[in-house]
Amino acid sequence: MAEKIRVTPFWGCMIPVKYPQMELSVRKTMEPIGVELVDLEGFTCCPDPIYFKARDKIEWLTIAARNLCIAEEAGLDIITMCSGCTSTLLEVRFLLAEDQELKDKVNEKLKKVGKEYKGKVKVKHIVVMMRDDLGIERVKASVKRPLTGINVGIHYGCHLLKPSQIMGIDDADYPSILENLIQAIGANPLTHTEKLLCCGKGCIDDEMPIDMTYEIFASMEEANVDCMGLICPTCFNSFDMGQIIIARKKEREFKMPVIYYCQMLGLAQGLKPEEVGLHMHRIKIDKIMEMISKPKKVNVAV
Amino acid sequence: MSDKKLDFDFRERLNKISGGSHHNYCYQCGSCVAICPAARFNEDFNPRDILLKTLLGKKEELIGENSIIWKCTNCYSCYERCPQDVRPIEVIIALKNICREDGVLPETVDKFSETISQTGRSVVVNPTVNRRRSSLGLPELQNVPVDDIKKMLE
Lengths: 302, 154
Hints:
The complex is a heterodimer of chains A (302) and B (154). With 302 residues, chain A is α/β, with parallel strands linked by helices.
């Protein structure tokens, strides 16, 4: 029996509040592959790497460092389920290691709540933990119903990979982590022109995010993708709810199911769509379930 | 006659903000523009130009709630590509921090950040949220220690 991995999940805000189906899928899929999730009390918003950081970087660093302290005190490493949380926590970790003066300044503020950041805690996005600590083979071994024949259009999102100097996860131009994880559950990761394009959620503009997501859908459609696979709740919002907005503003319906990686893993582990909360998505996944229940017949020459 | 005076005071101010001082390394190669999705989807957005204006200290063109800097998608592609370690996105964020100091933050940013300072979360928890969670068999969300946040930011 392979060793169990103990980590503390940092759920962030978007997942537990807006998309609890993602939390459910993580809780359901991790136990069978040997990951023990130890929930700790006291985490707050990471805080978000876009608006809050834009308001005051020192305040952003301080709140994030406090979150890191909680895991550090418990002697547990953090796994993140959201690319935004991953970005904040890893960048703060990097900046406080790079700049002693900044670290002193932040620790001065942390002292007010009886905390001190030492810099010992590690932070990994759940997909990185699966690749590096668990190993792709253990993910593969948990599959009971491979998603054979399903073409998945990967959307990496920005904050898992960039900047690679800080994230250190994969090549930012030629990543492979999600392709490998999707292959592990029997599906077929399809490459498409706009695989690495930003979803646009981080800019303050009415048109740009819609134009950007539209390009991504068009690129996936051209590649004959059956569903979209991603790992970030903010990107999910851009693409699931986003399709409703695109249909209204651009009069174009893509009807592309958007699935969070752990939900996909759950289906492959034999869970029903409701057991990983897929019934909560705006864009229905019936087409995918039909493909899973009736795998394409392979013609064998007699 | 063009105004050739540089505003060094503005640059000095930017240098003091975390991430702001790297603007000094920019040699205007434009690598950031080639990779920038905001530049691709909005012809008015150009990170090289933002850096040039920063080097010239053109504060009035950069600081404001309707400044072009708010069209940045925050994707970090420029950070990835920059050969000079300018970390253009971090310079843009430092400029945004100056917007806050000067009281010209866009309302969206201010409201969103205030929710975090006041509740500890970026999305507000209401009874519907907990009903949806319990329909999935997930535990109710508890309040987070927002007093800690308030104390630290005092």
